[in-house]
Amino acid sequence: MKTRRLWLIAVGIVSLSFGVVAAQETPPVVSAALQGQMDQIESTTSTIRGLDSTDPIERDFPTRADLREYVNTVLDEEMNPELAARLLLFYAAFDLLPPDADLRELYETLLNAQIAGFYDIDTRIMNVVLFSGDTPGDQLPVMEQIIYSHEYVHALQDMHFGLETLGLTSEQSINEPDRTMALQALIEGDATQVMNQYAIVATQDNPMAVFSILGSALQSGGLFLPQGTPPVIANELMYPYLAGAEFVAALYGRGGWAAVDGAYVDLPQSTEQILHPDRYFAGDEPIAVTLRPDDTDYTAALGEGWSLVWDRTMGEFYLREYLDTQLAGRSARMAAEGWGGDRYLIFHNEETGGLAWVVRFVWDTPEDAAEFAEAFAEFGNTRFEAEKTELSDDCWTSDAEALCIVDEGENGHLLAFAPSQAAAQALMVAQQ
Fold first, then answer.
1. For the segment 69-81, what is each residue's pLDDT rounded down to a tens digit?
2. Domain boundaries, the chain
3. Which pTM value belongs to this model?
4. Separation of alpha carbons 318 and 91, rounded Å
5. Contact (Cβ atoms closer than 8 angstroms) between residue 307 and residue 348
6. In the list 191, 223, 375, 427, which could disulfide-bond 335, CB 3.0-4.6 Å?
7. What is the largest CA-CA distance in the chain?
8. For the chain, first and last CA: distance in Å?
């Protein structure tokens, strides 16, 4: 599978890494003044980051029409209907999106609205996207300068650390979403920290330029996500930049850019490490958790017509997103903070559209396990709009679904969701 076409972050696409954009019939004329300005941006960015350029890069100015065409082409190639349907099952299983959501349309709308320049590591071309029309002048406006600096950091990262060697393939993104999100947070957080420092340099002699930046962003829609963007998709998009920048700031605070460079050797392994840098520094790696993906066991639990569609790790980021569907933001964050490791299986009945899942969580401490159990009791009561069923204190039920939790001891919990309480409990019994 080709790398760097799309980064399928977790189960969705939140960052593009393009192949070759279709060439314009008449390439724009780039003046010597503009070339000189871009050279200066690269030099300043290199100085801020403490990494020298080892290879020249080319520059291109694709139009918005070029980008729209290319986004559609890449989505057609890498997000076929079968994959889109499978990805949606994850979101729907954990109440993050409705089961009839159109992922392709969501991503197409989001990406077309948010692309603001990109560096292509396959061709080593810096693609400069202008907010103010498609024809470059003699100077990049301040907003485009700052974006250029951000993207040039990716070029420097590629030169020094080999981004393709980090394992950011579409296949890994789908099968190891938590680790992939950690890697992207390092990469984007690094570039965001440099971009922020470059922005200070770019505006220090002209503070009024800040208003130019805001004006460009408002005009392009860059300050806002498209109307109707679901919270989980918005959070996937922003996480690598915001949480990543905080993670890189923590690295920088401990040892400057050398410490950031070191993270490309000792890579972060989980969103937990990104969200809590102290755990990265302490070497707190995810705990390996296993489940039994035995089809016979699950046929006995669920009946005929069910198939296993996912077997992978959720991670702290998506646990927080799931809890946030029913709990206040701070409560969801606190309940997820003790995450130590997990594994989940999702099953789908194509004929009925039914979904079922089982997940095993391991917590860092007994206190973390107790905090999660207390928060999840509130979660279940809120989701089912009732107290626990009298039949079993371990389950919540409705006419069409059931959610169960079992304390496994040693800082662990087993959770299951299915169309009936009997099926949910059978899923858990199959794991014991």
1. 878 887 888 788 9
2. 6-281, 295-429
3. 0.91
4. 10
5. yes
6. 375
7. 77
8. 37
